[in-house]
């Protein structure tokens, strides 16, 4: 499970539940637990200023990104456009066989949304 530090739990919840296959498993005023509909993957969203988050980790994210592998990146991109989420890079085909879309979540975390290119050969 990965935890995302957030300044606005509601906006982060909206971002991840709108774009990905997450439902809300638990919700409080300082933490939201999301889980995929098949119960295989979990994502936590925590108030970055909560006392359990170390002070050094309460700043904006830097030096990492989260990747979600989806069936169709272009479908996610359409939802991004309709929802007004921040797009860093429109879907493009990569040299390593993925179609990749880069987003920023409401707190600035870089989110890579990728889908395999069918019949791709190196």
The termini sit apart by 32 Å
Helix/strand order, N-terminal first: EHEEEEHEEE
Pairing-aware structural class of the strands and helices? alpha/beta
Main beta sheet: 4 strands, mixed
What shape does the CA trace take?
globular
What is the topology, as strand order, of the major beta sheet?
Answer: 1-4-3-2
Low-confidence spans = none
Number of strands: 8
| Fraction of residues in β-strands | 35-45%
Our count of helices gives 2
Helix content: 10-25%
Averaged pLDDT, please? 94
Based on CA atoms alone, the radius of gyration comes out at 15 Å
Tell me what the structure shows.
This protein is an alpha/beta fold and 122 residues long. It contains two helices and eight strands, in the order E-H-E-E-E-E-H-E-E-E. The chain has helices at residues 9-19, 73-83, and strands spanning 2-6, 22-27, 31-36, 42-47, 65-69, 86-93, 98-104, 110-116. The strands form two sheets. Strands 1-4-3-2 form a four-stranded mixed β-sheet, with helices on one face. Strand 3 (31-36) and strand 4 form a beta hairpin. The longest helix is centred in the N-terminal third of the chain and has 11 residues, at 9-19. The mean pLDDT is 94.
């Amino acid at each position: 499970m990965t935890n995302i530090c957030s300044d606005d739990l509601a906006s982060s919840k909206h971002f991840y539940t709108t774009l990905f296959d997450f439902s809300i498993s638990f919700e409080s005023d300082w933490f939201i637990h999301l889980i995929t509909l098949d119960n295989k993957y979990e994502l936590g969203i925590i108030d970055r200023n909560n006392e359990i988050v170390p002070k050094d980790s309460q700043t904006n994210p830097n030096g990492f990104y989260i990747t979600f592998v989806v069936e169709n990146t272009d479908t996610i991109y359409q939802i991004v456009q309709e929802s007004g989420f921040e797009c860093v890079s429109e879907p493009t085909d990569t040299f390593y066989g993925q179609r990749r879309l880069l987003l920023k979540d409401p707190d600035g975390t870089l989110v890579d949304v990728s889908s395999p290119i069918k019949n791709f050969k190196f």
